[in-house]
Amino acid sequence: MPIEKLLKKFHWFDIKQFLSFSGGDLMFQMTGIVSELIVLKLVDINDIGIWQFCLLLQSYMVIFRMGIINSFNREYIVEKELGNVETAQKYLETTGFHTLISMFLQAMTFTGICIYYGLTDKKLLTLATLSMVFFTCLDAMTNFEEAKLRGGLKFNVLGKSKIIFGITSFVTLLFPYYFTFYGLIARALLMQLFMYSYYRILGGPVAKMSFSYSHWFQLFKDGWKFWLLGYLRSFNKTIPRLFLVSFAGISALGLYTPVNWILTGFTLFTGSLNTYLYPYISQQFAKGNKDMNAQILSINGIALLLAVPISVIVYFIIPNLIDNYLPKYHASISVMQMVIFASLFDMFTVSTSVWYASKDWTRLFTYNIIIILISVLMFSLLHFSQYDLLNGTGWVILGNSFFSALLVVTMILTKHKISNVCV
């Protein structure tokens, strides 16, 4: 296909804006990963395990958000594209009000957990869970402010913001450097506070905190499906950590931390691409463009080709990097190398953005449930085997990612008519 036809086909994809956004986002994520690697060197493995346990608990707090922001990300853009400005504003204001309610519920849950650990005299866990009361509230507010900017398609602004956040991530390393575990907690809270405050200064669409039940119900009608799908995705990602903490102990969870950051690092570009594509795909559906599956699969393929050489280079760098810089994590090297290639297979999840934008619930639930069942089956086999649990976790992640990619491609290549699209 001549380059002119290819560019015309993707006329809606602003490559300059995407590079501006993804460049800033990748810098923020990469500086975050490098910062976390430095933290691993500064803080004891068991203390890292405690913090990871708290983050694991926080990942399940998505239940209180009910997918409202996910639904807002689509409906706000679609209504604006259709010229229904008043309806779009109602969605914005109702989402803001719901965010406040979800913050309260998340804070109360962590307060209860904090009291429980306080009664058992586990001081570090008590302190960590107490900090999560504030962390989870700041995280909810930050997500809403960022969603407002995405709703306004201000990806250039978001890209520049991420660069500033990346610089801040390095500066705040002074806290764990001087105060170890206590500094780790202080740094996490200050980073969330700074990001929320900065997004507030940038603005985005103005939202009064008012509540419209009809608009909330419309958001919830799709939002609970987004929430459940998000929960399924979150659960699938946390299965390796749940498995290790249950059958190998908190130290094994600490050893898994650099593995988790490798997974995160190699899905950064995928995440940026998904974040950028989703509102534009929704916009294209509102304009009547139904030929999105093939277009997104093409973009997915190009991204995969760009990622392969980087993966090979990092594969050979990891052993020397860990042995020279983080020798106490030597046991994690082979697992880190395995999950690099698992991340390549995970890139195929970019193509599921079309299913989210078109509300193709059947495919989405089928895909997520099958992947979880495969993961549970593979970890069950690992548990009853005599294989090393940490290294076995790496093989399970790799196998699960392979089946995930195979399933996505199979479902896309089957005959699909987007006749159930709701705009």
Can you count the helices?
16
Largest sheet: none
Tally of strands: 0
The helical percent reads: over 70%
Mean pLDDT: 81
State the secondary-structure class. Answer: mainly alpha
- Our Rg estimate from Cα atoms comes to 21 Å
In a nutshell, what does this entry contain?
The protein is mostly helical. It has helices at 3-9, 15-42, 45-59, 68-81, 85-119, 123-151, 155-171, 174-202, 213-247, 250-266, 268-286, 292-325, 333-346, 353-357, 361-384, 389-413. It has a domain at 248-423.
Provide the fold topology.
Elements: H1 3-9, H2 15-42, H3 45-59, H4 68-81, H5 85-119, H6 123-151, H7 155-171, H8 174-202, H9 213-247, H10 250-266, H11 268-286, H12 292-325, H13 333-346, H14 353-357, H15 361-384, H16 389-413
Helix pairs in contact: 2-7, 2-10, 2-11, 3-6, 3-10, 4-5, 4-6, 4-9, 4-11, 5-6, 5-9, 6-8, 7-8, 9-10, 9-15, 10-13, 12-13, 13-16, 15-16
What does this molecule look like?
The chain is 82% helix and 0% strand. It has a domain of 176 residues. It has 423 residues and is mostly helical. The chain is built from 16 helices and no strands. The C terminus is likely disordered.
Q: Key terms for this structure?
A:
423 residues; mainly alpha
